[in-house]
Amino acid sequence: MLIADSLKYPDLQASVPSVAKAMALIHLSAASYQGHLCPELPLVTPKTFLDFLDTFVLLQQQLTLQIKNKAQRIQNALGNLRMLIEQHNAHSNLVFALEQQLKGSRESLSRLQHQWDQRKLLYGRQLAECQQQENLIEKLTKQRDALRAQHEAFLEQMGKAFLGPLSQLQVADFEEIRSYRAPPESVVQVTDALCDLFHRETGWASAKQLLCTEDFYQELVVFPKEKMTDSEMIKLSLALKAPGMSDAALRAVSIPAASLAAWLWAVLCYGLAQRRGLPTGLLLRQVEATLAREQARLAHYHFQAQEILKYDLSLSKKLEDAQAAHRHVVENLHQAKCGQYHKWPIKAALLTPMDSWTTELQKLKGHCTTVLGDALLCSAAVVYLGPFPPARRQELLDKWLALSRGCQETLGPDDVAQALKQTQKSVVMPPKNPLLSTRSPFSLLSLLSSKSQQFQWDRDLKPQAKSARLAGLLLRSHTHYFSCRWPLLLDPSNQALIWLNPLPLEETRCSAPGPTEGRGKGFKRNQGKEPKEEDTEEEDVDSDEECEKTKEQEAEERGNEEEQEEKEQEEDEEEEETERQEPVTQAPPPPHLHIFSGSDPELGPQLREAAASGQPVLLTNMELGLECPELQWLLQREQLSPPQVQPGFCLYLSTALCLSALEKVLGCELLKGLNVLDLGMNMEILEEEMLHEILCVECPELESHWQDLKIRFLDTWEAVEAAEERLLTMLLLQNSKHQKPAKFLRGIVRAQAGLCQLRVHCEELEELRLQEAASCAPYRRVVWHGMAIVKALSPLQNLLPLFCVSPENCLAATRRALNSMKREIHHREELPCHLLQLKRQLTRQLLGSAVATLGLTQVPLVGALGALAVLRMARKAPELERLALWPGLAASPSTDHRKLVSGVARPAWLGPRAWHECGVLELLPPFAGLCASLAGHSSVWQAYLSLPSTVLGPAPGPGTDPLSLLQKLILWRVLRPECLASALAAFTTSILGRPLDENLGTSTIPFEQSQATQPVLILLPPPGHPTASLHPLTVIQKLAAKHEQVCTQPLSHRATELLRAGMGCGAPLPAFSWIFLDYSGTFEVICGGQKHLEVIALGSEAWDPVSAVVGTLRQAMHKGHWLVLENLVSDLELELPLAQQVSRNVATVHRDFRLWLIVSAEAVASLPAILTQHSMPVFWDQSLELGHVLVDSVELAQQGLSVQPPARVLPLLLLHGLLLHRQLYGMKLQAHRGRW
């Protein structure tokens, strides 16, 4: 059956309405999500939808071709298996028929042979009787003639008859006779007569045994010749008178045999002489009468013998024909049974692969029916999912899957509706008639990749998180080579090189040719016959002898077959070893990926050369190369064509910019032609890295064992795949070594045995992996706790655009938490306590790291988020309650039109908005009846809400069960939003305990995290902000004093005065070397540690132009100076040189170079986006806590010129701190109930 007949694909023309509807819904859904993600960016446009159409057609063809090729191979293999089984059945039937034919032939032959034997015996007896009659007549005649002389010779014969011949015999004569292996016929006749005389069976074997008897010569001497009967005499006489028994004839053959025959003659003569004493006359008359009767009888015997001979000749012809037919059947049967092929359990041997391949073929037939839906979702993922974070990608994919199946889904994002759906746990029955059928379960990884590729990624140590793998597949999709939009990668951590190295092979990027027709189809057996053995049987052999010889031949053949099988097995092993040693035909190498930088001055020629040669390119920092004409030309994707751009060229654009900065840097028109793919921070990757850090420190042997187990598992699975492919290839390829059925079946059985062993080994390794996972579970729970903190802090990136929860900072906090722990665990019972302490340390370090980055003024917000994460890990903060706290259930579109509780009037002390939110809160079971409780117990609620803290006292309602701390916080946010700050503080203290900033000093700059190629952007509070108390130059001064610098520029007298005036109190210049540029024109250059410095100033006509600043920047980068720019504003002349300089390679920048940018937080929007995105932000906010204010005052006093005694300084510092504290808090601090 052809593959086209067995695989039925859905008709694309008939499915156009369903496909169009599904595509429209997916496009609208992506547009809605993009509107919430970044509404200012044109990420979902009509051009995106056209790209969606093209990608769908391409992927639909690819999936169809993959299914067809795979099904073709499997179907060919199954056809070969069925053909092999049919051939085996035909061969077995042939053997059975030949056995039946042989049985009938044997019966016929046995019957004819029996007749022949009977007739032969009859004819022999007839001839024997004739011969006996002739001998008798001859004997009677001689007796009649010799009667007269018998008496005279009696005495003489008695003397010579026995003693004479006996004296001639020697013992050596017997040895010579016994030495014959195949004695002459006459010797056998002598020994047969001897055997008859001693009453033994005739034949050489019996005679040889008789001659070997001990004292045989003595037995001849004492032989009882007197007791011989007439019959013995006659038989002996007949034997001695037989042809060739004469003495001369015997002596010509063997002298000992002649001597033995002489002794026999002597015995005979003795007996004859003994009987001659009878009256001669009586004997003579008797002899004459007997002679007459015997002659008549002899004539009758001769007549009967002629009749028997005539019939035997015809029977002999029939027997010969039957024997020839029997031999022919035996030969055919022997050839058919050669190698015992008919007895092989071939069905059992081939049952497993047939079953597995049949199941796989049925699965492929099912995939044919879902190819349109699968291709649609895959193309939608490639086209639309790139800009979204991993969680939203999965949410969108699930929504599209439901839409494709015909379910009713909201197109836009609605976290509240999703959470409500999960809590309701209602089973949604899919429609009977889906819009488009898809695989179940649906997996993009299995559609866009394969198990072997996933295993290779594991071996290459690529991230194992599913969300990261999905991003890698979206990046590696071959559709980028044919799309109308180039991929734009938001890649701050250089993840693109991990996934693009190596690139997919060329075959995967172009339409593969159809499967080779008939490849491997039809397993052909070797029909050549084995050479026939020579027929050594005689035609007149008996059936018993023939059976015995047949058994002997079969035994010999079995031995030969076993030897042959051993030789063939050795040959198979040698061939397999040779195949392993022979170089395998290498697949074509993957295309070479060229990596260019946007800041490279040779970018234009490099891009043009790569496009002309059809080589893919990864362009990093692409925003720095937008001025390149060749790049602008290549960005016009629809206008590119050969020969300038050859097939195989693909432009991967990479940038470290975030999604929100794309509009400002690239512009909307350029973004319409780009497919954005966000490769930013991935929580699952960070979770694995954090687990690795913890295991390496806490339990390194577990980590090494886990890695070793993972490698062993990968090796075994790859071996399983190779064995399965080898088994399939054995049935597809027509190889000479597989032509013989015996060798082929041995190979099949051997391959299946190896495959079963590998699978068993995989199961064992999987059990070991589960055991290791159970051992890692306590440490993984610690990681989950840390990741909950990280996920809770992530929303701060939306509130503070320059703040970034980087994996490096999280891992550094993890290391600090580990270093603060005591790892001496003597008992296993101590592990839970140890890990609990590690959780606490990890929480403090992660939250403390965020506080150190954002500033002390953000401590309440950071603490509240951390406390909420701790509750979520303790399963005390359901998702719906978290959403009710922030942003509120009323923000959901599904709750906009919710009807309030009827019959309950709004209390006067509650506003309409709060009342509406209370009605929405009743969606949650703990808040059921809240509106009725607020209306019925207004005084109680007002008394509760007047308390100074949310922790004090139980809530008045609404139900009988007490509300949790988070639920009370939700009520306070809704009913008393003006008290939210204090409520969050009480909530944080109740969960976390000690304040996060108790161990933090004044604002610091994380110098150890700074890099020569990454500017430090210090964000000052806006002018007039109460926290703007300390300038960051003091901190930079301390850092410079600790860092060795070399400065070669002189310091002028005016600069010295300006410096001292800016620092105040005529303070001496510190011993550090750095350049300070001020755009305000008030304080331009500060340098210390040298006598001669050059003053560089900007912002006024009297100061140096921008070109001097650029020159100073380049000189500082080359010599490793520090450069500080304050009040930096957007300047088109300075933007591009500054961005190009900070984006250079580390090798071209001095490792001691640092660039400090000081700017007000409200002026960040005016700065170049390239500069802000490449900088490390530092939020320069001061704490409002009295303790921190006092510490700052002490540090300021220590910077003074004169040193005062402590007794005088401390009261002044206390007074200064209190006044500053009062000034910063303003009216709020005056209204506080503290003691002053």
Describe this protein's structure.
InterPro entries: DHC, Dynein_HC_stalk, P-loop_NTPase. Residues 548-558 have a biased composition (Basic and acidic residues). Residues 158-400 form the Dynein heavy chain coiled coil stalk domain. Residues 510-603 are annotated as: Disordered. It contains 47 helices and 10 strands. With 1236 residues, it is mainly α. Helix 24 links the parallel strand 3 and strand 4 (651-655). Helix content is 59%, strand content 4%. Helix 3 (46-150) packs across helix 15 (371-384), helix 7 (185-197) packs across helix 12 and helix 29 (741-793) packs across helix 32 (831-854).
Provide a concise account of the structure shown.
The protein is mostly helical and 1236 residues long.
Please write out the topology.
Elements: H1 3-6, H2 16-37, H3 46-150, H4 154-160, H5 163-168, H6 171-178, H7 185-197, H8 204-211, H9 216-221, H10 230-240, H11 247-253, H12 255-275, H13 280-336, H14 346-369, H15 371-384, H16 390-404, H17 415-424, H18 444-448, H19 451-459, H20 466-476, E1 486-490, H21 496-500, H22 543-581, E2 594-597, H23 603-613, E3 617-620, H24 629-635, E4 651-655, H25 662-665, H26 668-671, E5 674-678, H27 683-698, H28 700-732, H29 741-793, H30 796-799, H31 807-819, H32 831-854, H33 859-873, H34 879-885, H35 912-921, H36 930-936, H37 938-945, H38 965-975, H39 980-992, E6 1016-1020, H40 1033-1042, H41 1053-1063, E7 1075-1078, H42 1106-1119, E8 1122-1126, H43 1132-1142, E9 1154-1160, H44 1169-1173, E10 1176-1179, H45 1186-1198, H46 1206-1225, H47 1227-1230
Parallel strand pairs: 1-4, 1-5, 2-3, 3-4, 6-9, 6-10, 7-8, 8-9
Helix pairs in contact: 2-15, 2-16, 3-13, 3-14, 3-15, 3-28, 4-12, 6-12, 7-8, 7-10, 7-12, 10-12, 11-12, 14-29, 19-28, 23-24, 27-28, 27-29, 27-31, 28-29, 29-32, 29-33, 31-32, 32-33, 33-39, 34-38, 38-39, 42-43, 45-46
